[in-house]
Amino acid sequence: MGMSANRLDQLVRLRAQSSLSFLEKAFDLYGRGIPFCIERDAIDHPAIQALAPEAPEPLVERFGWGQLNYKPELSDAIAQIVFTSGTEGHPKAITITHRNLADVVLRLNRVMEIDDSIREYIGVPVTYSFGLGRARAVSAAGGAFFLPERFDPSEIARMAAAGEINAISAVPALWRLVLVNPEIIGDAGRAIRWIEIGSQAMSAEEKAGMRRLFPNARIVQHYGLTEASRTTFLCIDTAAEDVLDSVGRPTGEVETEIGPDGSIRIRGPHVAAGILSDDGTILPLVDDDEWLVTKDQGRYEHGVLWYDGRLDDQINVAGIKVGAEALEARVRELVKTQPGSFAIGAGSDAVRGEIALLAVVRGLGTNRALIEEASRVALRERGILADGALRCIEVAQLPTTGTGKVQRRRLRDLAFIPFSASDQAEQVDLTPEQDRIAGVWRRVVGDVPIHPDNSFYDLGGDSLSAMQIGLTMEARGYPNATVKGTLEGRSLAELAGAEVRSAFPDVTIRSWALNLVRGLMVLSVLFSHWGPGVFARLGLEEATARLMGPFYRMGTPGFATVFGLGLGFFLFPNVLDRPAAVGRRLRQSWLLVAAAALLLALVLGLRLKLYQGHMLSAEQVAVLFYGVLTFYLVALALAFPVMRLIARRERPYSDCLLGTVLLWSGYLILRPLMPPDSLGSPLELLKLLAVGHYSVPRIGGLVLLGLAVGVWYARQTEAGRAARTATVAGAGVAALAALIGVEQDGVAALLDPLGSFHRSLAGYVFYAALVVTLLGLATRAMSHWSAWRGGSRSALKLLIVIGALALPIYAFHGVVIPVADIGKDLGVPGAIAIAIPMGLFLSGTGWLGARVWRMYFGRTGNG
C-alpha cells in the first residue's frame, strides 16, 4: 500500500515535533500502511509537494510516559521517507520500507535481549531516526518509554533510583555530559539494564566509562547511515578492551565488506528501497550485486569493523552531519572572498565529538569576522544552532596537495597553533576567586584566555555546554547563586565579587517580589485562622480584633489575587509555546490541592460522625467538600483552557477585565435566585459554589484581575518602573474602592473588620488593589537588596521562601485545627491535641522551607 511498482502514490507530511502526539500519529500511520515524511522545514521536493500538498496538521506538545503498539511488518511497501543531511548538495529523499524497519527492530531487540519489562528514558528527539527507532523497538517488545522535555541527567538518576526506568537511549554528545559528572548518576546506574548509544564516534575510554557507570546494563552502540540504519552492533558491556574502538559486527542477514578504495559496503534487508526522484519514481541505491557503497572509510581487524572516518570530509556535529565542501560553497555565496582565503574541516570537541573548524588565511585582505559569521549562518541553515559548534583559527597558508586541493584533515593539526599576537586575547591576572571559577569554565570551553568581564557564553558556551557547566559546578559544590549566575550570563567579575550578592537580574527581582507578596498573603490566612485562638488564650482577643481585623480579612481575596498573579507571571508566557510544561505544572498543583481537600473532608467527616453518632447523609458528605480548596480545584482545572484562550486572542487585559465583570454579574444575578434554605441534597454543594462565601464566580473574578496584573508584570523590562507603576496604580484603585465603601456604608463599616464593606465587591477590589500595591513595594525592596542587612534581610528571605511554598501551606494548614478538635473530643489534653498536628505541619513545612532556602540562597544563606 502506498507504492505502485517503483512509484510512490500517496504520502502524509508529519510535523517534526518531538512529543507523544508525534509518536501516536506516526505509529497510527505505520499501522494503517500510509507512508509519511517528517517535515522540519519547507520541503523543496516536487514529488512530495505533489503527493502531499497540504501543510502538516499541528500537534499538541506532550511529554511523559507512552506505551504504543508496534508490530514489525515484513512488507516491501514504503513506510517512510527520510532525508539525508545534504552533504553532496540538496538532501536526498530516501524511501524506507516496512521490511527495512522490521529488520532493524528484530535484530536490535535480539542483540539487546529486550523483554516487555523495559521502561526506557528516550533522551533524544523522536523526530530523528535514532529516537524514533528506539520508540519502535520498545513498543515492539511490549514495553513503555518516557519522553522528557530535554535530556536531564539528574532526572535520569532520580527515576532510576526510584525504579521508574531501567533503560536509557542517548547520543554520545549527551553521554559525555554524564561521563564528565558520573556522581550525578552514582549508584542509580546499577538499576539500568539496557542502553543504546547513537552512531556518533566514542573513544574506547568513554565506552569503558559507560561500563563502569552502568555495570548491570546491556550497552549497545550501532553504526549505520540514513540509507542503512543500525548496520553493525558493538556490545560494549561484553566487548574485549582491544575492540572497544570498533563499531562491532553485522547481525542477521546484514553483510558488510571493504571495497578496493577502502569504502564500507553494506548489503541486507535493512538497506533502503531507493531514492525518491522528482517525478515520484524510486531509483535504486544499490549496485547490481545489491551492495550499498558508502563514502565511509573502514577496515576489518579481529573480526570486527573499524570506522576510519569519511572519504568525503563530512563533519558530524553531535549527530548532525554536514559536508565541508557544501559549507564552503554556501559561505562563498554569502561573502565574496578570494580563492584560497579560507577552508572548513572537522575539528575535535569534547562534548560534540566534532565541530566545524574554519581556517582563515592571514594577509589576503580577508574579513575574518564576516567569514566567521557567514559560516555560522550556513551551520544554522543546516540545523546547527550552537555558537560553540564553530571554531575559527588563522593560518599563514592552507595545507594543500600538489594539485592545489585543500587537505582538510590537516586543518585539525593546525587548530592548536595560536592566533597572531594582535588577535589573541591578552590574558590578565585574575583574583583567586575568579581563577577558581575560570578553572571550572575551562573544563568545558577549553584552555582559552578568560577576562573578568567575560561571561560563559562569551567564551563559546551554548545550550548543550550550559547543561554540562551547570552539572560540573553543582558537582563541585559551588553555591547555587554562582551556578545560576553562570547560566544567566553573568560576568566572571560579578560571579566572584560582591555584585552577585548585591544585584539580581530583573526577572529574579520580580519573581522574588511576587513570592514575597504570596508569603504575606498566606501568613494573612494563617493569622485569620489561628490568630484569634492564640490571642484568646492570652486574653487579648478583643484588644487585637480591631487592629488585626483588616489583616484577617485580606486572606481570601488577597490570596485569590496573588494566585492569579502567579498564573500570569509564571505560566501565561509559556501557555502557547510550552503547553505541555504548563499543563504538567497545573496538574501537579491540582493533585496537591485535591489531596489536601480530601484529607480535610475526611477529618471533618470523622469529627461530625463522632459528634452525631451515626452515618452522614449524602448532603452532609457533599458539603464536607465545600470550602476554599474546592474553589482552587475548579480554578486549577480551568486555568489552562482559559489562559490559552486569552493568549490566542492577544488582548489579555481587556479579556480579564471583561471576564471579571461577567463573573461578578453572574454572581449578583444568581444570588437572589437561590433558595435561602438548604436544598437537602448533594446539590447544596453546587449552590454554595455558585453563591456561597467561596463562590466560584465571586473569587474567580479576583483571579482574573490578578491574572491581568501578572501578565503585565511578566512583560515589564525594568523593575524600578514596574515598582512605581504597581505602587501608584494599586494605591489609587484601593483608595477609590475605599471611598466607594465609605459612601455606601459609612466609615464605620470600613473600619469594622466584620463590616459589610469587607464582604462586598468593592471590598474585594480594595484588597486586590492592596495586593498590587504590596507587589510594587516588594519589587522596590528587591531592587535594593544590598541595602537590607542582618535581621531585615533574613525576614525578607523567610517571606520569599514562605511565598514559594504558599500553595502547600495554604492547602494543608486547614487540617491542623480539625485534627486537634478530634483529639480533644476523644479526651486528649488540649495542649497535646494541638501540638501533634501543629508539629507535623510545621516540621513538614520547615523541611520543605529548608530545601527552598538552600536553592534560593545557598547553604550558608549567601545573597
Which key terms come to mind for this protein?
alpha/beta, Rossmann fold, GMP Synthetase, Chain A, domain 3, Non-ribosomal Peptide Synthetase Peptidyl Carrier Protein, Chain A, 4 domains, eight-stranded mixed sheet, six-stranded mixed sheet, disordered N terminus
What does this protein structure show overall?
There is one protein chain. Residues 1-5, 417-426 and 498-503 have low confidence and may be disordered. The protein is α/β, with parallel strands linked by helices. The N and C termini lie far apart (65 Å). The chain folds into 4 domains: 3-310, ANL, N-terminal domain (Rossmann fold), CATH 3.40.50; 314-414, 2-Layer Sandwich (GMP Synthetase, Chain A, domain 3), CATH 3.30.300.30; 432-501, ACP-like (Non-ribosomal Peptide Synthetase Peptidyl Carrier Protein, Chain A), CATH 1.10.1200.10; 506-857, no CATH class. It contains 29 helices and 25 strands.
